[in-house]
Amino acid sequence: xxxxxxxxxxxxxxxxxxxxxxxxxIKTYKLAKIFLxxxxxxxxxxxxxxxLPLILISMFFNYKVGxxxxxxxxxxxxxxxxxxxxxLVLLGYFKYYDFFIENLNLVFGKNIELLYLAxxxxxxxxxxxxxxxxxxxxRGETKEYDFLNYALxxxxxxxxxxxxxxxxxxxxxxxANDKNSAMNGRNISMGIFVFSIGLFKKVVIADxxxxxxxxxxxxxxxxxxxxxxxxxxSYTFQLYFDFSGYTDMAxxxxxxxxxxxxxxxxxxxxxxxxxxxxxxWHITLSRFLRDYIYIPLGGNQKGELFTYxxxxxxxxxxxxxxxAGWTFLFWGFLHGFALVLHRIWKKYGFRLWSWLAWLxxxxxxxxxxxxxRAKEWDDAVKVLSSMFSLDNVxxxxxxxxxxxxxxxxxxxxxxFYWYMESIIWIPMAFLLVLFFKNSLxxxxxxxxxxxxxxxxxxxxxxxxxxxxxxxxFLYFNF
Amino acid sequence: xxxxxxxxxxxxxxxxxxxxIAMVNYVVDPFGIFGxxxxxxxxxxxxxxxxxxxxxxxxxxxxAYLFGSSRIGVVNPKLIEQYVPNSKFYNFTVSSAxxxxxxxxxxxxxxxxxxxxxxxxxxxxxxxxxYGQESSDYLSQLHPHVTHDSTAFFYARYLLGFFPxxxxxxxxxxxxxxxxxxxxxxxxxxxLPYKEKALMQNAKEYVxxxxxxxxxxxxxxSYTQEEQNNKALTEIVEICKEKRIKLYVFTTPHNHNMTxxxxxxxxxxxxxxxxxxxxxxxxxxxxxxTRNNENYYEVSHYRPxxxxxxxxxxxxxxxxxxxxxxxxxxxxxMIHGN
Lengths: 478, 338
Known about the structure:
Number of helices of chain A: 20
Mean pLDDT of chain B: 91
Order of helices and strands of chain A: HHHHHHHHHHHHHHHHEHEHHH
Oligomer: heterodimer
Strand content of chain A: under 5%
Helix content of chain B: 40-55%
Structural class of chain A: mainly alpha
Number of strands of chain B: 8
Shape of chain A: globular
Distance between the termini of chain B: 74 Å
Largest sheet of chain A: 2 strands, parallel
Strand order of the largest sheet of chain B: 2-1-3-6
Largest sheet of chain B: 4 strands, parallel
């Protein structure tokens, strides 16, 4: 089920919310939690019932292993290894099997059949969440959690499908806390406020950019210079508004249930360097990669060269986490490499003007998203080569009378076909992401007054009225 | 302000906005879904929906159909009837249609047991990179009876959607004193009386003024929907065979400017693929009809007399003078390789 669907907004959410608090109101706390787990599983199964057993088995297995690891005074490395391996095998089977076989066939000239398995929804997210639980249990950092709270930690529907990737330490105490039992008026207002902003970001802004990004990447055979830049920028903004919109909605819905989810975005396109970007973009993923890959690999404790190697390895794995493909891997490589360069840059104390630092950082991010978005290498090459080629410049027809002399420099005049409107939307998106507070900063300063009520009402209306063009969230694919 | 009051204001604003939009959508009816009929001119409409609604009520009047995109919309069904004895044709042209639409509509007609003896199917070459419709394109959504989706959900989408441009266009069309385009739902056809008149009076001047004829075309259309298109056409041919429906397939005579946008090898491959599935008449490519801009309203749509030539060629009508290089019968399996 999608947050931006009629069935979620008008049926599932109100029903779950009201019945959950009714059960709490009549002091059946445990029943309320059981109801919330079942509701979350229903929410998950709406997409495809077939994969419900998968999440259930994964949840039972990890709970048992985690509990065993935390109870054992002498840490059992083999059990931990077995637990992590089985999680990764499950993820690998569904997500990476075909990719592996395709490359095996290519390298060894084999013809092993592909499975064409549909990726079970949220598998990357719940696998990461539970791997961190196992590792922390081994480290003795988990308590003896109740299974019901654990089940809620894994399945809680606002964060189940596309994160934020929550940590047991920040979630379990909230689920266990009975003070969260009653409806909290302030949380409800704040939840509606941030949910409305998220819905608007997703259905009004991201889905509008999606049209141009899709046409440029998937439909157009060739792109001229401007079309290529509008295509890449459209995707850059689509991805941000889509994913941060989703996160806002998740945070908003969770707040209705008195649960605070961790922050996942903090105006990432304001970043002045690549390290700064990763402190602002998909923060919970960065945190996971740091705590469970980069630091266990040795982090920055084993000398400069090892630090660089660890950074590269972490980001290449991060790229692969997003999808089984060489374009994702290359995207991870680019970001790892940029972080290494940035580290060297910092080491020698070089500095840049802020505007130039922003320009370089933003353009690097924009260009690297081309690999992230492209379905094939050819698509990435098509967009990138057109972005940097002066052989293919087409200006709008109406400028021909004034700039006709440019035809001697191979400039052509023609229709600005499908990307015409993006010329207006792209500057507006720049304004929004660079000069305005982000939704969570707005939430921090949220006041109950007529201004915020009218703003929320209009933003929510615009979101719901634009919802008829139902589309999926990009991060559902990862 | 209390939380209760704040939440009340939010939902009040939401309710007022949604009611307002729903009311405007119902009254203006920008896609012709609700049949409110307050704005009489239905030029801008979801043809797929409107025509299925019409056929559901009037299917007994017809036993043969013209399938195609808007490009076949100028062909009077009576013209084809004279070649097919005892036939009653309906022009089921729908804008931007592709093989997905033809297949879905054919399946629906068969499922509903509508009488169907002859199918006159026009295939656009630019459909080689087209299959299906985007869910955001409200002018092109199939009728829920055809897709077997929820009818209530279908209406809700049209009632609660925000369509400022379509609403504006519908109002503008209804305020305009002269109509550039007319529509005949009973035949299923459309006409451009003013353009036709201008072409009749001075075709050269018309062609000179029509911008689309003078734009430099670039190769942009390739064969990306090979698998889906071939599968759909195969199923159409099989259904016709099974249900004993006489099927006439032909390709659109695209204006030469449009043909310039096709990647040549991929265009040939598309023609070759069609010939693997069925016999058809090929009117596409460069010939004396497609090279002459006077046969078109703009680069996309041909004029009614071209439709007459197509029919005359297909039905071997010697009484009609057809340019010699116009149309070629491609028998099944005739094109091999490229």
